[in-house]
Amino acid sequence: MDDGRLPQGLGSEPWDGEGLPTRRNVLIQEGVLGTYLHTLRTAAEMGVAPTGTAGRGTGSNPGVSTFNLFPEAGDTTPGELHRMAGEGVLITELMGLHTVDPVSGDLSVGASGIRIRGGQLAESVDRMTFAGNLRDFLTRIAAVGNDLHWYGSSAGVSLLLSDMSLGGA
């Protein structure tokens, strides 16, 4: 979700770049896409209401932006996720994520992390390839961690993905 009014949010603003009040926009709920983010122009083109998520730079036209972008935390601890994984890899870094094809969702990025053996963290692994389709990753979320961490105005949680392949792992 994206919440431009989140109390204490580093990206919180009362108004977006077009003067509309910011709000909470639930993007994906229980695996279902709920809305797209819109400016006044994109909302008019799609025949929907604007979402109060326009950003604007100095001398530029408004574009879709986020204010405080974050997933909803689950109820599973990171340790429980490791035990549920049994054998796998805890990915701690993805390199080149900006190269996701915006039309197809296809991606192939470098990854590094920590091998999981018997539900316990083991040795570091590096120079792996994480490839596939973003839609497929979203449909393979088996569990969501309770460890919401903020990185500026965006946040993330640990995710357990089922049936994923890593090259070079």
Task: Describe this protein's structure.
The chain is mainly β and 169 residues long. The protein folds into 2 domains: 69 residues, no CATH class; 81 residues, no CATH class. 12% of the residues lie in helices and 36% in strands. It contains 3 helices and 14 strands. The chain has a 4-stranded antiparallel beta sheet with strand order 7-8-9-14. The protein has a two-stranded antiparallel sheet with strand order 1-2. A hairpin with a 7-residue loop joins strand 5 and strand 6. The mean pLDDT is 93.
Summarize the structure.
By secondary structure, the chain is mainly beta. It has helices at residues 40-46, 78-85, 134-139, and strands at residues 2-3, 24-25, 28-29, 32-33, 54-55, 63-64, 88-95, 106-117, 120-133, 141-144, 149-151, 154-156, 159-161, 166-167. The chain is built from 3 helices and 14 strands.
What is the topology, as strand order, of the major beta sheet?
A: 7-8-9-14
Q: Give the proportion of residues in helices.
A: 10-25%
Span of the ends, CA to CA: 32 Å
Assembly state of the chains shown: single chain
Specify Rg, calculated over alpha carbons. Answer: 18 Å
Total helical segments: 3
Q: Unreliable segments (pLDDT under 50, ≥5 consecutive)?
A: none
The count of β-strands is 14
**Class from helix and strand fractions:** mainly beta
In one word, what is the shape?
Answer: elongated
Approximately how much beta-strand content do the residues carry? 35-45%
